[in-house]
């Protein structure tokens, strides 16, 4: 079965410092992986997606993630945090085959950014 | 173009009542999925609809049901409400039946409180 594990429930960084949000996945086949962000009282916004093309994926707002099959990881990074990055981040894997439309979410990582 | 629209945004119901939530997908999108978000269980998949047909269903009791209309709008219904049904219900739309490159666009959700 497909699953994702977000290794940190909360990450705190200072503005201008790098961000690292960690995600490990479990999948029988080459997975489709996503990172979504949720700001307070808002819906989910797609940051980036991996679908077996380039292993380094660039997303919006300066975020990127690297797919590492050997480590079953898909960590999200950003070189320099901004106050507006404070939000909850979800690592997501899609289901297999005709279950592909079913998105399986990690438990989320809350990112705090200190001035 | 307009995003995914969910109505109502907020709802308060009493235990034992039933509730209907509505989702209008992005114009031209034919696939709609529903998710429940709670602090304890995180984001969990409820249903996926495409062309008025339910393609996938999550692990929820039969009190949770849904449907999709010919214009792709979708409704979900929860009968005999329980306190544990209090949650943010998110709707996502995508252009077509799911493929690895598919992007799901989320609405802002309906916040249901059961008292």
Largest sheet of chain A: 6 strands, mixed
End-to-end span of chain A in angstroms? Answer: 41 Å
**What spatial form of chain B do the alpha-carbon principal axes imply?**
globular
Percent in strands of chain B: over 45%
Number of helices of chain A: 0
Instruction: Assign the structural class of chain A, choosing from mainly alpha, mainly beta, alpha/beta, alpha+beta, or little secondary structure.
Output: mainly beta
Whole-Å distance between the termini of chain B?
37 Å
Number of strands of chain B: 11
Indicate the multimeric state.
heterodimer
Write a structural description:
The complex is a heterodimer of chains A (115) and B (115). Chain A has 115 residues and is an all-beta fold. Chain A contains no helices and 12 strands. Chain A has strands at residues 3-6, 10-14, 19-21, 23-26, 33-38, 44-50, 56-58, 64-68, 73-78, 87-94, 103-105, 109-114. In chain A, a hairpin with a 5-residue loop joins strand 7 (56-58) and strand 8. Chain A is globular and about 45 Å long. With 115 residues, chain B is an all-beta fold. In chain B, 0% of the residues lie in helices and 52% in strands. In chain B, the strands form 2 sheets. In chain B, strands 2, 4, 5, 6, 9, 10 and 11 form a 7-stranded mixed sheet that branches. Chain B has a 4-stranded antiparallel sheet with strand order 1-3-8-7, with no helix packed on it. Chain B is globular. Chain B starts with a strand and ends with a strand.
């Amino acid at each position: 079965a497909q699953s994702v594990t977000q290794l940190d429930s909360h990450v705190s960084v200072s503005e201008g410092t790098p961000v690292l949000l960690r995600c490990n996945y479990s999948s029988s086949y080459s997975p489709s992986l996503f990172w979504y962000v949720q700001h307070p009282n808002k819906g989910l916004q797609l940051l980036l997606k991996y679908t077996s093309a380039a292993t380094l994926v660039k997303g919006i707002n300066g975020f990127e993630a690297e797919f590492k099959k050997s480590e079953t990881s898909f960590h999200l990074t950003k070189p320099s945090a901004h106050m507006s990055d404070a939000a909850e981040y979800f690592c997501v894997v899609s289901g297999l085959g005709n279950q592909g439309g079913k998105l399986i979410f990690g438990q989320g990582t809350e990112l705090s950014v200190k001035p | 173009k307009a995003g995914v629209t969910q109505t109502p945004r907020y709802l308060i119901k009493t235990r034992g009542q039933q509730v209907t939530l509505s989702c209008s997908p992005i114009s031209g999108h034919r696939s709609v999925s529903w998710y429940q978000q709670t602090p304890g269980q995180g984001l969990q998949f409820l249903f996926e609809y495409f062309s008025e047909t339910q393609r996938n269903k999550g692990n929820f009791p039969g009190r949770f049901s849904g449907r999709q209309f010919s214009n792709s709008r979708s409704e979900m219904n929860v009968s005999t409400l329980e306190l544990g049904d209090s949650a943010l219900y998110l709707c996502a739309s995508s252009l077509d039946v799911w493929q690895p490159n598919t992007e799901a666009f989320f609405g802002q959700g309906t916040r249901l409180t059961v008292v």
